[in-house]
Specification:
By secondary structure, the chain is of the alpha+beta class. It is built from eleven helices and 17 strands. It is globular, with a radius of gyration of 27 Å.
């Protein structure tokens, strides 16, 4: 009876607020997802916007190759691998099966060509050859994949090969793939390859070139889509990690175990559309009231620079921008010595319907304490000045 009265009271209050012109906030209802598991995240903040069985360990098919691409692109970015290096194919690559570019034993293609074959054509033989080249062997490259997964916080993922063909003990979760996707989109070179929906740069062995078509239909149908990887096997179903960017917001949608290719893209595009319609990433570069420096007493320098400990980006509901407020709490002064990255204050951001976000403010350099001679000299100059 009490619950009924509360329900009626809530309905009356809501109606009153609507009639009075008030705003009643409610969590926007997400679309229906038919895949076995899914997750939608803000790639910048890591905020999870939607999750369905996102911690369930499932096979991932060729989505595996996103990790292969990530490791290769990261090595190129850090100048440990050249796009022009020639990658040899061995007999194992020749016999790999599945989607491929039909590498011949002893044939060599450049790293750049292998990346295109993997990102656009989802070539298993290219993924194997490139992984083996980077790791020295398939076993060593798989160890690199699992170590990288551990570093990214993918605690429910295990790889046994670089291409994703069915294998025992080869699994992941929608949440873990969202972590990988968020890491991958930080590399523009990776997005350069995953955003291409076709490629005709690789030989076909008959004097012409292969016509590789990207299976990611969203690249042609969804505004802002630029990756990342699709996959399918009978055991895994239809899978994908989709990335899209609009204005200042980038979202990652992960789909595992969809019953059909059509439903995979419907799930992904539905989640992305819902996310862009209802959320946005807000950046606060220079909070009002944050000083550039703080005075330092008894220091070798009279002041020290200060800055936010990390960039401030928040995921907020669309239309709530004007309701985000912040305040700065800072020490009035510091007494030397001051350590590098010493916490000297904080910025507190209040976001509607969320807990306050607290960002530490750090010193940007170390300031040592004045020596006795410096104290005497400064006192002397103060007296005569």
């Amino acid at each position: 009876m009490a619950r009924t009265r509360k329900s009626v009271f809530g309905m009356v209050l809501t109606a009153f607020l609507m009639l009075a012109g008030g705003t009643v906030w409610a969590e926007p209802a997400p679309p229906v997802v038919v895949a076995r598991a899914a997750e939608l995240v803000d790639a910048t903040t890591g905020q999870i916007l939607f999750a369905s069985h996102a911690e369930q360990e499932l096979p991932m098919a060729s989505v595996t190759k996103l990790m292969t691409l990530y490791i290769a692109i990261r090595a190129i970015t850090h100048h440990k691998l050249s796009l022009h290096a020639m990658v040899p194919a061995d007999l194992e690559a020749y016999h790999i099966g599945g989607s491929q570019i039909w590498l011949r034993p002893g044939e060599k293609l450049s790293v750049e060509q292998m990346l295109r074959a993997i990102a656009v054509g989802s070539a298993n033989d290219a993924a194997y050859a490139l992984g083996t080249y980077i790791g020295g062997s398939e076993t060593q490259f798989v160890a690199m994949m699992n170590q990288t997964a551990k570093e990214l916080g993918m605690h429910h993922t295990h790889f046994t090969n670089p291409h994703g063909l069915p294998a025992a003990d080869h699994y992941t979760t929608a949440h873990d793939l969202a972590l990988l996707g968020a890491a991958a989109v930080k590399y523009p070179l990776l997005l350069h390859y995953t955003s291409q929906w076709q490629d005709r740069s690789i030989r076909n062995g008959k004097g012409g070139h292969l016509w590789l078509i990207n299976q990611n239909r969203l690249l042609r149908t969804f505004v802002g889509a630029d990756g990342l990887k699709t996959g399918y096997t009978h055991s895994a179903g239809f899978c994908m990690v989709a990335s899209a960017h609009r204005e200042h917001t980038r979202l990652i949608a992960v789909i595992l175990g969809a019953p059909s290719s059509k439903s995979r893209f419907q799930d992904a595009s539905g989640l992305l559309s819902w996310g862009f319609q209802n959320y946005r990433t807000l950046y606060i570069d220079k909070p009002a009231g944050l000083p550039h420096v703080l005075p330092v007493f008894r220091g070798a320098k009279l002041e020290v620079g200060v800055a936010l400990s990390r960039p401030l980006a928040l995921t907020i509901s669309t239309g709530e921008t004007d309701r985000v407020t912040s305040r700065v709490e800072m020490a009035r002064h510091l007494v030397a010595p001051v350590r590098y990255h010493q916490t000297v204050g904080q910025v507190i951001v209040n976001v509607p319907h969320q807990r306050p976000v607290r960002i530490p403010v750090w010193s940007t350099q170390a300031i040592r304490r004045q020596r006795l001679g410096e104290v005497v000299l400064n006192y002397f100059w103060h007296i005569i000045g």
